[in-house]
Specification:
The protein is mainly alpha-helical and about 325 residues long. Helix content is about 50%, strand content about 5%. It is built from 17 helices and 5 strands. Helix 11 packs across helix 12.
Length: about 325
Amino acid sequence: MAKFRQVYTEFWKDPKVIEEMTPEDKFFMLYLLTNESTTQIGVYQITKKQMAFEMGHSIETINSLIQRFENIHKNIKYNTKTREIAIKNWGKYNFFKGGKPVYDLMKSEMENVKDVSLLGYVLENYLKTPKVNSNIVNVFEVFFKEHNIPYESYIDTCCVSCDDTLTGRITIGGQEVEEEVEEDIDKEKDKEKDKSKDNSVEDSFESPSDDKLPSKEIRYPKDSMYYQAALYLRGKILEFNPRCKVPKDNPKNLEKWSNDMRLMFERDERSREEMAAMIKFVFDTDDFWRTVVQSPSGLRKNWDKIAAQMIVRNKHPDKKQSGSFQEQIDKMKDW
C-alpha cells in the first residue's frame, strides 16, 4: 500500500521558517516530514548514513543539521544510541484523523519504539495545540499504562500554550475530563513567576558566575566543523599579519565566518582536501592572494581565480612551498 505524508502550505509562511531557516534547513525539515521511514506517530528509526545518502549530503553535514535542529530550532530530538528521531509538531498536522485502523497502526508502531521518552516529547507538544483528538491521546495513555510509564506529566501540559479559549476533552485514568483553558493563562503564569522572583530574596542560593549566566544561543559551537575551519583560517591570517583586524576567538564573534565556511562546504561542495590546499596556497606560497583573502567570504569570492592561479603555479613552479600538503590536512583533522 502506498504511503503518503502531508506538508501544509503554511510551512512556507511560518516566520521561523522564513527568518531563521537556511535553504539547507528547509530541505532537511521537508525530508524529515516526508521520507520513507516516517511513521504515523512521528517517531521513527533512521540512521545518519541513510539521511546522508538519500539527501546527497556528507555525514558531517547531517551531524551539523541535527545539531542545529535540536539546539537552535528546537523542533526535533535524536537519540544517537537507538538512532530514533522525534518530530516536535508532528501531531499538530498528523493527529487529526482517527478510526480503528489508525489507532491500531499507532499502537503497533509504538511497540517498536525503543526510546519511549520520544513518544512523550511528541505527545507533550501535541497537547499544546487546540482541539486535540481525545481518542489519539487515549492511545498514548493506554500504551504508557501498559508499560508502567508515568504519563501524567504529559497530560498535565494539555493546552497550556494555546492562545484562544477552547474546551477539549481528554481521557485521564479512563475517565473523560473537560478542561477549559482561558487565553490569559499565560499572563497568570507570568505573574506567578514574578512573585516567585520577589520571594527568592529570602531563599539562600549561590549567585551565578558570569560563565553560568544565560547567553544567546550559539549557532556554531566550538566543536562545530565550520567553527574550526573559520578558526583555522583566522590563525593563518594572523600568522601573516598579527595586527590584522579579525573577529575574536569565540563562536559568537566568528558566527558569520563559520556560516561562510558552511556555505563553502555544503553549497559550493568544497572538500576538506580542497580547502587545505587552497588555504596553504594562499598563505604559504602566494604574496598577492594572502593580501586579498582576509576572511572566509574573501576566500569564497575569489576561489575560482585562486584555483586557476594554482594550476598555473603547478605547471610553472617558481617558489618552494613550505610544509607538506599532509601536514595541512593533519592540522584540520578535527574539522
